[in-house]
Structure formats: C-alpha cells, structure tokens
Amino acid sequence: MRKTLIVILLVAPLLALAAQNITVFGTVKANLALDYYDQYSLLYNNAMGQYYIDNYLLLTTHTRFYENPGVFAELSADLLIQELIASQSDETKQSITFELNEAFLSVPLADFLFFTLGKKRLIWGTGLAYNPSDFINPPQDPLHPYEERQGVYSALLELFTEWLSITQAAVLYDNLEYFGYGTKLSTSALIPALDLNIIFYYSENAGINLGASCDTTPFAEIPVLQNMALHFEAGFSQKSEQLIYDSDTGTLTQRADRDDFYKNFLAGLRYTVPGWETLIAAEYYYIDGGYLPAEIDTIIDRGFIADAIYEPGLMCRHNLMFSITQPQLTRQANVFTDTLELSASLLMNLMDGSFFIAGKIESAIISNCIFCLEGGCFAGKNRTEYGLTPKEFYLGFSVVMGY
Predict the structure, then answer these.
(1) What are phi and psi of 244, to 5 degrees?
(2) How high is the pLDDT of residue 145?
(3) Are 171 and 156 in contact (CB under 8 A)?
(4) Which one is predicted more confidently, 390 or 90?
(5) Residue 329: is its pLDDT beyond 90?
(6) Domains and CATH numbers, the chain
(7) Is 231 exposed, middle or buried (CB count within 10 Å of its CB: 0-12, 13-18, 19+)?
(8) Nearest of 314, 265, 327 to residue 126 by alpha carbon
(9) I want to staple 64 with a disulfide (CB 3.0 to 4.6 A). Which of 23, 221, 254, 349 is the partner?
(10) What is the mean pLDDT of the chain?
C-alpha cells in the first residue's frame, strides 16, 4: 500500500509541470564530522574503534505547486551520499540513501474545508525537545530539536472556522495494527493570548491516547516581559514502549498497559531579549514510563543493557532542556560579525545528573551560503542516561548552499 501511495503522490508534482505556479528550491550540504568514542562505555563494542570520520553530501530539494482554486502539492526529499571511516580498520564504508520527507496533495472541498493525502509533517505539540501530545509524528531526536522531522503517510480532513479548527487524521501503515485515527481541535478565540489544542489518537498498537497543548503570551502588557511566551503540553497514553526487566521471566518486557494512563508533561518558556534579539528557551518535561536509576542498574546487572531501548533524552523521567541563540553577534559593525550566529543547548537528566551539551557557530558572510562549526559532549557516570552512550563527543564542520 505504501509503495503504491508513493507512486501516486509523485505524480502530483509532475502534473504541475503544465502549470506556471511552480517553485523549486533546496540546499546542498557538505559535512565533515569526527565522532570520538569512550572505550569504557557499557554500550561500547570493539567494532566501533575509538573514532569515526563521517563525511557526507546531503541534497535536499523542495518542489511546490499552487493552482487555483487553492490546490497545493509539495514534494520534499533528501539524497545522502556518505563516507564513513573507522579508526578500528582501514575500511571505508560508502552508501547512498534516498529519503522522502514529504509528498502530498491538498485540495479544497470548500472555502473552509481541505483534504490532504500523502506523506506530510504533522506538528501537534508546542514543545521543542519533547512532545508528549504528539502521538503521530513526534521529533526523532531531542538532542537536535530544531531538525526537521520526516512526515507520516496520512489522509487529513481539515475544517476551519473563525474560532475553531478541526483536523481529522487517518495514519496509513502497511500493517493494519499500526493504522491509526486522530483528531485535533484548535482554538485561539476562547481565551485572549492563548492558543489551545486538544488531541485524541487511537491505534491497535498504541491504544488510546489523549493530549492537550497550549501556547500563551500572558505578559504582553508588561514592557520587560512582553517578549515572553509560555507553552505547556500533556499526554496520556495507555501504552509505554519502554522495556524493563521482568524478574518472573528473567527477560526484558514492555511495561504493562495502564487503564489510568501513563502521564507525560512538559512546561516551557521562550524569551527574546529586547534590543539583542537573543532567544532563550527552557523546558522541564516528565516521562511517566521512563526509567528510574534503579531500573537502569537492574538492566545492567542482569546483562540486558545492549537489548534495552536507548534513546537519550526520551528514556528517563525528569528532564531539563535549556537553549540560547544569538542570531547576530553585532549590528552594522562589520559584515562578518553581523552575520555570525551563536547557539548553545543543554539536555539534562535531573535524577542522575548526566547531561548533553552542544554548541554551534554559523556564519552567512557569503550570500546564500552558511558555514557551520558545531560540537557536542556527553557527560555522566557509566550507569547514567548520557554516560551510557559510547559516543563521548563530536565535532563537525559543514557548508550549506541554497538554490
């Protein structure tokens, strides 16, 4: 079913060749990265070596088509050419992969009603590092919250009124067990300066899921705080994907389903410093089905740590995210510092004290081209969330050109 759907969707941009309202744009990214591994990590294996050199060329292309009355189609894809060199051997691994990010067609059924079919990004949450109410298309990696996610195959029916919007989604999979249905109600008219979303999602595999999120600017009338926004998110799920040690069977098993739901929460703020345009963001989030330190110890002691689901940022209960971005180092001083962007982020497990810290420097000194130097470090003891990862730190340099 999925392959047939892809073929159908690829036809939509081709049909647009007969029209005039076509936009084609994208980026070409050349990247050189060094990943350094900790040989004493519990998840390290000898095949990894001490470091990897990761070279790749990433071509991202977008094709958009507009046609009256309101027909809209988009195709977005990545072509990745990668070369991986490990210190353990002289062998060089090369690969070419193609990823379809989005491919969908949107058709208006009325002025207030739209139907969309295809692979499309669905962003049903307000959080940056974690989205407890996004049961369909959550971010893939909280270590890189600003990276674009791939879409999901779905059929959407969207209704818009002056005070309420309703989205009905059918999520399509080859396996009917994963086939799901979701509804999102959104409004910004009930309470001033508040955007509210209420979400329901069900599939046989995921069970019943209920969620809510909101984004508000409550201090708009206070000069010092008018640039502050608060966001909240909550998700209630019958199932958890986390694997725990079962003493009765002596194996790793999925956490039991709960009729009273697993309760996941997020609260965050965003603040833009007046005059400097510095963006500061902070979030606390709680994952009800996440590991406690004692559970990680048990899994390690029983020899199952290599079989557990290791997802830094999404595997433990109490988490903190902090980020700061300075989009321009100076203003009208010189062309280099005027186009220099600095950013740093921290992701921390509040129970075991382990953390991941990253930084990035970007320069757009050349028009339509971005130079980027970035790095990150994992810190913590061997039995902690971020100390378990075999990767100790990474450094990367990339050049991104737009067309």
Answers:
(1) -125, 165
(2) 62
(3) no
(4) 390
(5) no
(6) 2-402 (2.40.160.10)
(7) buried
(8) 265
(9) 23
(10) 87
Distance spanning both ends of the chain, measured CA to CA: 34
- Please write the tens of the pLDDT for every residue from 137-152: 877 677 776 667 788 9
Q: What is the pTM of this model?
A: 0.88
Q: Which of 258, 243, 249 is nearest to 296 (CA)?
A: 243
Q: What is the pLDDT of residue 245?
A: 83
| Nearest residue to 59 (alpha-carbon basis) of 28, 33, 85, 82 | 28
* pLDDT band for position 4 (cuts 50, 70, 90): very low
At residue 50, the pLDDT reads: 82
In three-state secondary structure terms, 64 is: strand
* Cα separation, 86 vs 111, whole angstroms: 56
Q: Which of 101, 54, 107 has its CA nearest to residue 78?
A: 101
Q: What phi and psi values does residue 202 have, to the nearest 5 degrees?
A: -140, 140
Question: How far is the C-alpha of 31 from the C-alpha of 35, rounded, in Å?
Answer: 13
CA dihedral 220, 225, 226, 230 (to 10 degrees): -70
pLDDT tens for each residue of 234-255: 999 998 888 888 888 888 888 8
List the beta bridge partners of residue 207.
203
392, 24 Cβ separation under 8 angstroms? no
Distance CA 281, CA 57 (A): 31
Give 315-347 as a DSSP string: SBSEEEEEEEEES-S-SSS-HHHHTEEEEEEEE
> Which is nearest to 346 in space by CA: 372, 376, 314?
376
Q: Which amino acid is residue 232, in one-letter code? A: F
> Nearest-CA neighbor of 119 among 182, 166, 77?
77
- Quote the CA–CA distance of 78 and 101 in Å, as a whole number: 7
3-state secondary structure of 6: helix
* Amino acid identity for residue 397 in this structure: F
pLDDT for res 5:
52
- Res 178: pLDDT: 81
Integer CA distances (angstroms), 15 to 10, 40, 252, in order: 9, 56, 51
Using 50, 70 and 90 to split pLDDT, how confident is the model at 345?
very high
